Amino acid sequence: MSGPIEQFEIKPVISLPKVDGIDLSFTNSSLFMALGVVACSVFFVAAMRKRSLIPTKLQSVAEIIYELITGMVNEMVGPAGKPYVPFIFTLFMFVVLGNLLGLLPYSFTYTSHFAAVGSLSVFSILITVFVGLKKRGLNWFTNFFPSGTPIAIAPILVPIEIISFCSKPFSLTVRLTVNMMVGHIMLKVIAGFIYSLSFWGGWLPLVFISLLTVFEMGIAVLQAYIYTILTCVYLNDAIHAH
How many percent of the chain have pLDDT more than 70? Predict the structure, then answer.
């Protein structure tokens, strides 16, 4: 049986020659990112293809997800956040599908890698910076030194605020990747005991691992929700002054 860490190993699916020392091979991480995009697109096209006043089950699920995101944006950002619902919606779906697809047998969890999630986090923060500069202009920089603050504490406050701002992508990345890695390692280790505990008939550990998988599915959705709601918080900070 393979070790619990091997499931996070990036492997090439389609090997390509290196360009200036950079490996551009299509990997298992890239494959499951593409599968996540395809799965999301197919689901929402199928769910909303025949919209009706009395929704089908698929349409109901799609509407619940959409209402969840729009409600989150409206609550955290307010009316000013309405134009950014598509971005937040896409962000949530990308993360939640990455978390859930990783629970399938022989799959790969691209949200368990710092490079993938870190790039997404940096991109999300840069989007909030762009939105803040567009909405507030140079007043966006008052986030580092709110109006009414005594000028005497500027040498202390400004560096602290800058460090806090620069740590946002790191905190987003670590929270998500660590939770996904720990959960998947725990599932792998416990699943390895099922065979060794077969003298119990195998049913008790099988029931336990099934319940643990359901629990991990809940964690996967919760972590995607937390990741998205924190992005909304940062978007709100960018649009509105302190």
Answer: 93
